[in-house]
Amino acid sequence: MAEVPPVIDVRGLTKTFGRRTVVKGVDMQIARGEIFGFLGPNGSGKTTFIRMLCGLLKPDGGEGTCLGFNVRTESDKIKPRVGYMAQRFSLYEDLTVRENLDFMARAYGLPGRKAAVAETIERFRLSSYAGQLAGSLSGGWKQRMALAACILHQPELLLLDEPTAGVDPSARRDFWDEVHELAAGGITALISTHYMDEAERCHRLAYIAYGDLLARGTGPELIAASGLCTYAVSGPDLAELAATLKHAPGVDQVAAFGVTLHVSGRDCPALEAALEKNAAGRWRVTRIETSLEEVFIDLMRHPGKAA
Amino acid sequence: MSVFSFPRFAAVVAKEFVQMRRDRLTFAMIIGLPLIQLVLFGYAINSDPRHLPTAVLSADNSVFSRSIISAMRTSSYFEIDETLTSREQAVRQLALGRTQFVVTIPENFGRDLARGDRPTLLIEADATDPSATSNAISAMREAVSQALSRDLRGPLSDLAPTAFPVDIRIHADYNPEARTEYNIVPGLMGVILTLTLVIITAMAMTRERERGTMENLLATPIRPLEVMIGKIIPYILVGYVQMLLIVGAARFLFEVPFAGSVPLVFAVSVLFIAANLAVGLTFSTVARTQLQAMQLSIFFFLPSLLLSGFMFPFRGMPGWAQVIGQVLPLTHYLRIVRGILLKGNGPSEIWSEAWPIAAFLVGVILIGLTRYRRTLD
Ligand SMILES: Nc1ncnc2c1ncn2[C@@H]1O[C@H](COP(=O)(O)OP(=O)(O)OP(=O)(O)O)[C@@H](O)[C@H]1O
Ligand SMILES: [Mg+2]
Question: Is the pLDDT score of A215 beyond 70?
C-alpha cells in the first residue's frame, strides 16, 4: 500500500472560530481501503475537521489533499467523490425516504437513477418506509436513511460523522459489515464515533482532544503505547472498595462493570501495590487486557503525554 | 465539472415542487393572500355604493324638478336628506363628509327648460374617494334624462331628442384628478406579487439553514447558480397562478375593461416575477433566521408599496423618493401593466420600462451569487 498515495493527506489543518482555535494543526494520512476511526470527547473538533475535508468549512491554516485534490481550492472536485453524512440529520424531513434518495441521486448525476434508488432502498431494508416522510421516521431509521443517501452514489471516500448514534445493535452490526464490505472493495472511510466496540472494528484510530490530535495507530498499538495495566476485581462490597481505590496511589481509573471492577493505572508496580494493600484476601484480582476505553479515558485525563 | 448542470438543477426544482406541495401554510399564503387582498381592495374596485347622502337645494318648484328628484330617488344611488335646505348648511355637511352630494336646482329651472335654454344643474360631489362617486354621477345623468323624457311630451317633445336639455355641471371637490378605480387592479397585481414572492423565497434558503439541510446541500456537488435558479423556477409558476387569480377576478368579478393584450402582460411579468424572487433569494443568503428573512422582506416591500406610484402619484413625490422609486421593479411594472391594460400599449411602448427591471434582476442575482455562502463558516 505504500506506493499508493493516501486518500487523505493533510498537514497542520487548523480552524479558528472567533478567537477559539478548535482544530490545532492536525495531520492525518489515511490509505485507500482503510477504515479510520475518529474519536475524542464532545466538542473536541471532530465534526469541524471532517467538514474541512469535504469543503464545508475553509481551513484557516494547513495544507493537504483529499482524493488527490487540494482541500482548500478544489472542493468542487472533492464533493462528487465523497459521501458525507452529517452528525445532525440534514436530509429533508418533508420529503419521503424515496424522494430524499431520489434527490441525492439526481444531485450526484447518478446514471440509472430509479434502479439505483430502488436497489439502495432494498439493501438498507427501507422498503416499508419508502413512502413515509423522513421527518416521521424514528431516530435510528433516519440514520439508516442518511447512510443510504451518502452511499448511494458510490463515493470513493466516506466521511461519516457519528453515523450510528441512536442505532440499535443489530443495525449497527449491519452497518459495520457494510462498511467492511465497501472497504474491501477499495472504499476508504473516516468515521467518528463515541462507541468503543466500533473503535475496535476500525483498522486504525485517531484520538483528538480539544483540537489536538493526541494519539493515532491501530487499537493494539494505542493500548501498548498507553502503558496502562488493568485488573479486574470481583467479590463483595465493590462500591466501598471502589471508593477506597479511587484515592489510592497508582490507581488512575476505577470503573464498575456489572459484578467486577476494572482498575487501571500507568504505573504498574504502584497499581499492584495498591491492590495488594486494599483488595487482598476478600477479593479476587486478575490481570486483564487493557481496553480502548481505558486508553481513551486516560488520554482525556492526561492529555499531552501520549504517543 | 461544469458550472451549470441540468440534472443537478432539475434535482433542486423537483425537490422544491414537492416541498411546496407539502407546505400547507405557504400554499395557503400563495392562494389566500391574493384572494384576501382582492376582496379587500375589490370592495374599492367595484364599489358601487348606493344610498349616498344627498342634499337637494331646489329653488324651483316645477314639475321637472320634482320628477328629477323622484327619479334620483328611484335610482337608489341617492338618499335625499330633506332637512338640508340652506346652502351654508349643505356645504358644511359636504365638508364634514356627512353628505356626498349637493345638488342645486336653480330658480326658473322649469321655465328655462321648457324654453329650451339648457338650464344648469350643479352637482357638488365629495370626490375624496372617486370610486364612490363616479357611478352615482352617471346615475344622475340617467335620472335626469329619464325624468325629462317622460315630462317633455306633447308640445315640448321636440326638445327631447336634441342635445341633452340640461347642462349638468359637476364639481368634484377635494380630489379633482379623480384616479379611476381601474388603476388599482394592475397595481394590486404588482403589490401582491412583490409581497408573496419576496417572502416565500427569502424563507426558502433560510429554511435550509435553520433546519440543518444546508449542510447536506452544500456537501453535494450542486452549484450556487443551480440552487438559485432551481429555487426561482417553481415560484415563477406560483407567481403566474397568483396572476391568473387576480386577472381572472379583475375581468370576471369586477369587470375591469382590458384595453391591451393580456398575454403580453403575462409575458413581461416573467421579468418582474424573477426580479422579486431574486430579491427574496438574496435576502435569504444574508438572513440567518426565517424571522430576519421576513423582516428584510418587509423592508423591501414598504418602499415598493409607497414609492412605486401605487399609493401616491409618482410625479407628486419629492426628487429623492422618485430616484428610489426608479430603482424598484414595482414602479416600472405598474407602468407597464397600466400601459398595456388601460392604454392598450404594445411591446414597443413597454420596452423603456422593461429594461430597468431586467437590469435590476441581473444586479440582484449578482449580489446574491457573491453573497451565497458555499461553506458553513
Ligand atoms: N460554526 C461554529 N462557530 C463557532 N464555534 C463552533 C462552530 N462549529 C463548532 N464550533 C465549536 O468548535 C468546537 C468543536 O466542535 P465540533 O462540533 O467539531 O466537536 P465534535 O468533536 O464534533 O463534538 P461532538 O462529539 O459533540 O460531536 C466546539 O466547542 C464548538 O462549540
Ligand atoms: Mg461532532
Answer: yes
